[in-house]
Amino acid sequence: MAGDAVERAVLERAPDDRIRVLDADGTIVAPELEPDLADETLRSMYRDMRFSRRFDERMISLQRQGRLGTYASLAGQEGSQIGSTYALADDDMLSFQYREHGAVVSRDLPWEYLLYWMGHEDGNAALAEIDVFPLNISIGGHLPHAVGWSWAAKLNGDERASVVHFGDGATSEGDFHEAMNFAGVFDTPTVFFCNNNQWAISIARENQTASATIAQKAAAYGFEGVQVDGMDPLASYVVARAAREKALAARADGDDRPRPTLIEAVQYRYGAHTTADDPSAYRDEAEVERWRERDPIDRFETYLRNRGVLDDDRIETIDAEIEATLEELVDRAESAEADPRDLFEHTYADPTPRLEAQREELEALRERHGDGELLDYE
């Protein structure tokens, strides 16, 4: 199917007409939408999904050992994160909330990324080198910035799109609606990617918005919203690709459709909201197990095996590479030495008298007691 036809087939449909290419058992259910991807690309997608799951497990383990700060798990959402990012150009701007580690993995996750989760803001700086906005913690606060960036790209004539990830809970924040409205009015090349994992911390999807779908919210702002099976990496790829192409396409005669698109990726968060959360207090484990039957890695692996792209030997090689890479990432991050004085470096462009006083007080404490005593929690 040609590009324009794919865009119409994918984007011009009812917001509750969920797009799926792979069934839960890994079989193709929409052959007309199956992307024509090279075997090496497909294996790379699988590697990144598998890496993301293992990264998740390792980070949670480190947090439990006191070697990492509070961490947000991505397990169950690998399909949407990797599939959508592979649909982008390398220099498209990526903006994410805090759970989309897989999107960063697809951009060759830098070792400094771990520093952020270890409490060092410097870990955010490395993301700029791979065209990723700094990680955002405030819910939905990054959406207006992503729209502003894409508007600037449009005004500058840059052929780059802005893809912004956020959770379903963010759609109840004012920043979401302001960003959507601005994107629609100013026709910005923005792809809004909502990772609907069914829970806004402990608030179920149906209890935080009365809309039948999140995708339909786009209609209020004059552009298209589409729903996709977020646990299907091929469907996530196809939809994100179509939305990106639409965002950057030159206007055809008489075609005045706005460029933005809202994608609702329906999926499930297997783990806790963060390592400071206990999901057993608000959800049934049987529900989690039902969603695990649609696991994005399992269904993609089955698809690749059926195509002859993947076998046991290749998976064994991939796993060995993943473990070696993770070991190197953790070793480098844990060997980095922090300078307490960095706390004061970027608070203000020009330090205030109070900030200077605080810096002097810290230095006096270090001189009087030594760093070892100050770091002794016992």
UniProtKB/TrEMBL annotation:
GO terms for biological process: branched-chain amino acid catabolic process; sulfur compound biosynthetic process. One of its GO terms (molecular function) is oxidoreductase activity, acting on the aldehyde or oxo group of donors, disulfide as acceptor. Residues 333-355 are annotated as: Disordered. The keyword Oxidoreductase applies. SUPFAM superfamilies: Thiamin diphosphate-binding fold (THDP-binding). Transmembrane segments: none annotated. Residues 333-348 have a biased composition (Basic and acidic residues). It holds the Pfam family E1_dh. It comes from the Archaea. Residues 47-337 form the Dehydrogenase E1 component domain. Keywords: Oxidoreductase, Pyruvate. Coiled coil: none annotated. The keyword Oxidoreductase applies. This is Pyruvate dehydrogenase (Acetyl-transferring) E1 component subunit alpha.
